[in-house]
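To whoever is on call:

I kicked off a structure prediction for a single chain this morning and the downstream step that reads the tokens threw a length-mismatch warning. I double-checked the sequence; it's 474 residues and nothing unusual in it as far as I can see. Pasting both halves so you can look.
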Amino acid sequence: MSISQALRPSQPDRAALVGPTGESLTTGQLAQLAARLVGLRGPGAVLALWTSDRLAQGALLAAGLMAGCVICPIDPKASPGSVLRLLEHARADLLITDEELLEGLQEPTTLTASALMAGLPSTLPTLPTGGQGGLLVYTSGSTGEPKGVLLNEALLAANVCFAIDHFGHHAGSVSGSVMPLFHTFSIISDLLALLVCGGQVVIAEGFAPTQLGAASRAFEEHGVQTYSGVPLIFDLMLALRFPLPNTLRFAISGAAPLGERTRLRYSTRYGHPILPCYGLTESVCFATASRPDAIRPGMVGQAAGIELRVVDDAGAPLPPGQDGEVALRGPSVLADGYYRDPSRTAFTEGWFLTGDIGRLDADGFLQITGRKKNMLIRGGEKVYLEDVERCLERHALVAEACAVRLGTRAHRDEAVAFVVPKGPVSPQDLAAFVVDIMGPLARLDDVVLVGSLPRSGSGKPLRAVLLASYRPER
């Protein structure tokens, strides 16, 4: 399947996208937008998309792929300096942005999203054939510098087809999008899968606490059946008691570990399950996924139309129940290396090494247990700092925790935990709590109490930001 061909509509008057204020775009209007993009630069052009208008984000992503362009979505909150560096690395042919974002950005090859989307008719234009497009997505860089991942039409098609089949999407399906549309999670799970199968996408403003109320009302008004989120969203839904419509079949969780307490409380409150999934930009979106009738506690499902195994440090596969690095290969897994920097990509005998630590059970269900770079070796034993985080979050006075390896030459196997407390608690008590439960090898060298954890647009804690802010007293 070609994504550019699959997105092209046969019913021009069918409403495809509904925006945060209720405005809608038909499939014919998306096709007309694609024709405008073809006229600007032609198929294969790299079009950078830097806009805070979420309806424009969704429309330009779909239309750009329909036109056979390479779309590079950028975080609307990115600084002008970082955008310029990204544009240079991406070799973008055109930047599509907002008037207010242009201040301080000297970029001559620029058009505004509002101008491109003005006055779109619903008739079907003639578009060029052949798939030359794709997505150029820069990873969030939670542990280092972002890397460009070029996802061609074949990679996108494989993951989109999996999502449609696995989640049972069809022409009558309606999804909701609250997640950022500059990461592949919502792009694949909520946007492209629905548009390819002829469904409708309701794009809400976002998932900040002040925005979720409007999202829940939009979900009710349009009969949303599925949506994707990170655990933070589900926790906010529960804490703020937002209503959700009974049309919802399930929610899809990814980007960060989903706690069992959150999963069970949510399903009890709302009457539909959260499906734990796992993926990364290098696997387009889904690497594993759960089914509503096959959710295993602590697991993120089974392989999503690809091959998956857990390997030791030499790359040899490990048996079920043993921890090792998660390795992937298949039709939706990056095989050519990072964009303009293939040497940074980790492969072993054709398998992509994710850097995530996990274990498989006898039925092929995966559990993610840690991150390889966020690991200590003490006394010949491995200590995964995600385990330390989970331990800290069991403390009655801890709301959130993020443990980070210092990794300097002088402090190679030392770790500091940044903790958001629920009430009065001392760093010393928290450090002792970890040792009491996990033993002396898991000791923390420092605990820092903070008001909140910095997070990426997809909800991941930004370890590099925390580490840069760390000022040890000793």
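Update from on-call: the warning came from a stale cache, not from the record. Cleared it. Sanity check on the structure: Residues 336 and 342 are 7 Å apart (CA to CA).
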